[in-house]
Amino acid sequence: MARPQRRRSTARTSPNRHAKTSVAPRALAVLLLLVGAAGGGYLGIYRQHAAKVAAQESRYDVESDIAALDQSKLYDARAGLDPAVQAALDKAAAEAKDQAAKAKKANELAERAQAASRSENREPPDYGPIPSSCDDYTGNRAIGCAELLKKGFGLDQMPCLNKLWNKESNWRTTAENTSSGAYGIPQALPGSKMASEGDDWRTNPATQIKWGLGYIKGRYGTPCKAWDHSVATGWY
Fold first, then answer.
1. 206 vs 149: CA distance, rounded Å
2. Scanning 33, 76, 84, 167, which has its CA 20 to 30 A from the CA of 198?
């Protein structure tokens, strides 16, 4: 009777061993899945971070390349290290400034020359009747003779005035000294002084002559004394 009991006991315990043995692989598989998921998450985060760093480095490289193309920054950097480079830059800047000033002056002179050409081609403003005593003169000289008499000078002063302004401007309304900037028939310096006789001082011979005679009278007394001074010194 004892042997059959031992067989039943063996049959009951055998399934429990198989159950315990199958639990361990399943737990291990779950653990591996969890570790893999966590590892995948960390790997994704790492890849995102690496991509962000790479983008920043790429942008930095581009900005550095652009800065390298800025020649002024490059020269400034060199000048800070080498006094000879700084001296060369200063010289180049001074020459550029000088050339710009010359170009500006040339442009101004060209514009004035064009304006003068247009003015010379226009009919002079209507002056009015010229005294018969001035019949020996024409054009601007005739106006000068008439204004001379109006100013209270004698006709004997006209030859001196004629020689003086022949020398200064040849009686040209738009005559300009490119060196000094003196302008007009009397070569006023600056020409804008003649605005005291009228806003049309650039083109109206009568306005210029009135100013010139007033200047002569106030400084020298008469045109002949002004002419004597011009002969002695080269200017009046």
1. 13
2. 167
Q: Is 100 left (phi over 0), alpha (psi -120 to 50) or beta?
A: alpha
Cα separations in angstroms, 57 against 42, 53, 65, 69:
22, 6, 12, 19
Q: Which residues contact 160 (CB under 8 A, 6 or more apart)?
A: 222, 223, 224, 226, 227
Rounded distance, CA 113 to CA 121, Å?
12
* DSSP character string of 57-126: HHHHHHHHHHHHH-HHHHHHHHHHH-HHHHHHHHHHHHHHHHHHHHHHHHHHHHHHHHHHHHHHHSPPP-
Tell me which residues of the chain have a pLDDT lower than 70.
1-82, 109-125
Burial of 126: CB neighbours in 10 Å, binned 0-12, 13-18, 19+: exposed
Q: Which of 98, 233, 112 is nearest to 181 (CA)?
A: 112
Q: What is the value of pTM for the model shown? A: 0.51
Q: What is the pLDDT of residue 18?
A: 47
pLDDT at 39: 55
Residue from 156, 218, 150, 213 nearest 186 by CA = 213
Helix (H) or strand (E) holding 32: helix 2-69
